[in-house]
Amino acid sequence: MDILEQISLKSYNTFGLDVKAQHFCAITSKEDIEQLIKKEWKNFHRHLILGGGSNVLLCKDVEGLVIKNNIVGIEILKEDENNVWVKSYSGTTWHDVVLFCVDKGWYGIENLSLIPGTIGAAPIQNIGAYGAELKDVFVELEAIDLETASTKIFTKEQCQFGYRDSIFKHEAKGKYFIFSVTLKLSKQPNINIAYGDIQKVLEEKNIQSPNAKNISDAVIQIRESKLPNPKDLGNAGSFFKNPEITTTEFNRIQQVFPQIPKYDLANGNKKIPAAWLIEQCGWKGKRIGETGNHAKQALVLVNYGNAKGNEIWQHALHVQQSVQEKFGILLEPEVNVIQ
Ligand SMILES: Cc1cc2nc3c(=O)[nH]c(=O)nc-3n(C[C@H](O)[C@H](O)[C@H](O)COP(=O)(O)OP(=O)(O)OC[C@H]3O[C@@H](n4cnc5c(N)ncnc54)[C@H](O)[C@@H]3O)c2cc1C
C-alpha cells in the first residue's frame, strides 16, 4: 500500500473536477485500512474517504490524505425459504450488488438500480429512488473506528436513517470507515411500481407480472432518459434535498403559488420537490460559464467540462439564495461539499 503525492482526482469524482490530493492511497483490504490508521493516521491532519466520488463536490485541492476504497466482494451469509442475507464489502459498486440480486430473482433493491457509487457510501445518505430506500433492506454494517482501528457493528436502529440522512452525517460524521454492509432481500415478489414512470414503461413493454429484473430494467431505462451520465457531463445527481415544510408554511406559499406540488408526510408536514422550486426561479437549463442547471432536471448541477469546484459551489449558493428569496425555503445540499 503506497501513499502517493499530488494525485489528480479528476477520474475519482463524477463532477470530473481536476483537483489534486496532496496525499493519496488506494486500499484493497481490511488490513490496509487498519494499518493506515495505526501507522499513518497521525501524519495527516485531514482525511477524505472516496468511494465512487458520485456525491462529493471537491471545491479545491484536498489537503491531507485521500483514501480510495477498493475493497470489493459480495457474499451470501445465509438464506431461508423467504429471504437471503447478502454482505458486500464497501468498495463494491452499488449497481453490481443490485444486478447480483436481481439476476438471482431476489427482491428489495431493484428500484435502486443504477444509482452510482459504492455500497459503503449508500448508508451515509440512506440512498433512495422510486419509492425505495436502502433502510428498507438494511440489516447492519461493519465500521472501523478511525481513531482506534477497532471494528464496530451498527444496526439499522443505530444508523438512525432518515430521508437522505443517517448518523454518519451527524455525530458519527468522519469517525468511521464503513467496511461492509449486509442487506436482507426477499425471495418472494415484493414489488413497488407505483412511483414515477415504472408502471408506464412496463405497460409499454407489455409486462403484466413484472419480476425484479423487469423492474430494474425499467428503472435503468427511465434513469438513462432523464439523468445526465457523468461520463458525458460531470454531475453528482440531485444537488439539493427536497425540503420538508410545515402545513402552515405550505399554506402561506400556496396562497401565492397555487400550483405548488407536495407530498404529504406521515408527520403532517409536506415535502416539496426542490426541482420545482428551482425551476420556478428560472434556473432550468441555465448555463453560466462552465456550470449550470441541467436542461432536463433542474436539480442536477453540471460541469460542462472546465468548471472549478468552487465555481459550481458559488452557482449552488446563487440557486439556494434565489429559492429562499422567492419561497422563504432554505434548500439543503445533498452533495457533500468538501472545502
Ligand atoms: C447521476 C447520479 C445520479 C444519482 N442518483 C441518486 C439517487 O437516485 N439516489 C441517491 O440517494 N443518490 C443518488 N446519487 C448520489 C450518489 O450516487 C450516492 O450518494 C452514492 O451513495 C454515493 O456513493 P459514492 O461511493 O460515490 O460516495 P462518495 O461520493 O465517494 O462519498 C460520499 C460521502 O461518503 C463518504 N464515504 C464514502 N465511502 C465511505 C466509506 N466506506 N466509509 C465512510 N465514509 C465513506 C465520503 O467521504 C463522502 O463524504 C446520484 C449521483 C449521480 C452522479
How would you describe this protein?
The protein is an alpha+beta fold and 339 residues long. The chain folds into three domains: 4-69, Uridine Diphospho-n-acetylenolpyruvylglucosamine Reductase, domain 2 (2-Layer Sandwich); 74-226, 2-Layer Sandwich (Uridine Diphospho-n-acetylenolpyruvylglucosamine Reductase, domain 3), CATH 3.30.465.10; 234-338, UDP-N-acetylenolpyruvoylglucosamine reductase, C-terminal domain (Uridine Diphospho-n-acetylenolpyruvylglucosamine Reductase, domain 1, Alpha-Beta Complex), CATH 3.90.78. It has helices at residues 30-40, 94-103, 156-159, 198-204, 212-226, 247-256, 274-280, 309-327, and strands spanning 4-8, 20-27, 47-50, 56-58, 62-69, 74-79, 83-89, 128-129, 132-133, 138-145, 151-155, 176-186, 234-238, 244-245, 263-264, 270-271, 287-288, 291-293, 300-303, 336-338. A five-stranded antiparallel sheet has the order 6-7-12-10-11. A hairpin with a 3-residue loop joins strand 6 and strand 7 (83-89).
